[in-house]
Amino acid sequence: MELKEQILKEFNSRFNEKPSVYASAGRINLIGEHTDYNGGFVFPGAIDKVIMAAIAPNGTDKVRVFSIDIDEYAEFGLEESDAPSQSWARYIFGVCREIIKRGGTVKGFDAVFAGNVPLGAGLSSSAALESCFAFALNDLFNGNSIEKFELARIGQSTEHNYCGVNCGIMDQFASVMGKEGKLMRLDCRSMEYEYYPFAPEDYELVLVDSRVKHELADSPYNKRRESCERVAKRLGIETLRDATQAMLDGIRDEISAEDYSRAKFVIEEKDRVLAVSDALNAGDYETVGRKMYETHEGLSKDYEVSCEELDYLNEIAKECGVTGSRIMGGGFGGCTINLVRKDLVADFVETAKKRFKEKYGHEPKVYEVVISDGARKVE
Ligand code: GLA
Q1: pLDDT band at 121 (very low <50, low <70, confident <90, very high)
Q2: CB hemisphere CA count around 337 (13 angstroms)
Q3: 74: enclosing H helix or E strand
Q4: pTM for the complete prediction?
Q5: How far is the CA of 15 from the centre of ligand 1 (A)?
Q6: Pocket perturbation via mutation, ligand 1, pick of 170, 185, 218 by most ligand atoms within 8 A of CB
Q7: Counting atoms of ligand 1 from 1, which one is nearest the CA of 170?
Q8: Is 330 in the pocket of ligand 1 (CB under 6 A)?
C-alpha cells in the first residue's frame, strides 16, 4: 500500500475528522559537513524519501498522534509542562512549542504519520518529521504566515530544546526548502542560499547505507561542536568561518591537539565547498569527486566521526574507480554518498554489497538519489 493510503486508512480507523496530508523530505549533502554550526557552507538537497502525516484540528487543547512505524500512540497538551515521555513524540511536541514561543498558534489536533526515510542512516529522518509538522501546523493554524525559512529554524530549535542535539540548520533547511532536481548552497552565516541544478549526464549519486546506527543525542556530536566553539572563542571570532589555517597555527600550543584537528577540518572543509561550487559550474565532476574523498579523509582522521565500516565502504569505492565517495551527515554510522560514473554503477553496487557482507556479515542497503521537493501539502 502506498504511504498516503496507509496513513489515511489508519487515521480513519482512529479519528473522525477529515484530515489534510503533508510531507517533508529526508536529505543528502554533496559536501560541507559539520560546517553549518561553524557559519560555513553546506550543499544539501531534499530526496524522494519522506515523512508523511495526516492531520486535522480536533477542537480540543490536546494533541493525539499515532506513529505507524513505531506502532505507538501519544497524547499531550500544549503547555511547556506537558512534554510527552516518548522520544519520537517530543519532536512533534517541540515543534508545537517552538511555534507557540514565536507567537504563533497551535491548537489540539489528531495525527497519524509514517515514513520511508531510513532511520539512523544519516538522511535526517528527524528533520523530515519536524519539517512535516512545522509546515502542517503553519498551514492549519497560522494561515501560512510563518516564513518557510523560519519553519526550518523551528525544527532546529526543537532539536536543541527538546531532543538534546545541538545541530546546525542544514537538515531542516534542506527538508523544508528542497526543490526537485536542485541542490542548494547555503551560507550558514548570512543564511543566503542559491539553487544549483544537479543532473549530470554521465554520473549518478548513490548512497550506500552501512546499516550501522548512530544516535546523535548520545553521540559525541555535541562534543565536536564544543571543540569548534572553544577554538573560535580562543581566536576571538564568532565562528570558525572567519578562521584561517595561519590563525589556527598561531594558537596551536594553547589548545589541545584534539581541538586543533577539529578546527583544521572545518577550515579546510569550508574551502572545499567553494571549490565544489566552482567545479559544478564548470561541469568538472572529477574535481567534485576528489574533494569528496578529501572530505572523507578529514572526517575520518581529523574530525573522527567515521567508523570502520564506513572507511571500508570508502576504500571499496576507491578501488572500483568511483569518482567521489565520503561519509555523509553527522557521522558515527549511516551512509556514504558516492558520485559514480553511470557505466560503473552496477559493478560498484555489486562489489560493495559482496565485499561488505563478507567482512561484516550483512549487506549494506543501496539507494539511488532522486533530488526532490521539500515540505509540501499532499492533499
Ligand atoms: C547532522 C546535523 C547537521 C549537520 C550535520 C553534519 O546532520 O543535524 O546540522 O551538522 O550533522 O554536517
Answers
A1: confident
A2: 28
A3: strand 72-77
A4: 0.96
A5: 36
A6: 170
A7: 9
A8: yes
d(CA 187, CA 36): 8
Q: What phi, psi does 185 have (nearest 5°)?
A: -100, 115
Phi/psi region, residue 59 (left: phi>0; alpha: psi -120 to 50; beta: rest), is: left
Decide: helix, strand or coil at residue 250: helix
- Reported as a single tens digit per residue, the pLDDT across 288-330 is 999 999 999 999 999 999 999 999 999 999 999 999 999 999 9
* pLDDT tens figures, 17-70: 999 999 999 999 999 999 999 999 999 999 999 999 999 999 999 999 999 999
- Residue-averaged pLDDT of the chain: 96
| Strand positions, DSSP E, 133-227 | 182-187, 193-197, 203-209
Query: Is residue 337 within 6 Å of ligand 1 at its C-beta?
Result: no
Q: How many helices (H) and strands (E) does the chain have?
A: 11, 13
Atom of ligand 1 nearest to the CA of 37: 10
Is the shortest distance between the CB of 130 and ligand 1 below 6 Å? no
Model confidence at 345, pLDDT cuts 50, 70, 90, reads: very high
Give CA–CA dist 296/317, Å, rounded.
Answer: 12
Shortest-distance Cα residue to atom 9 of ligand 1? 168
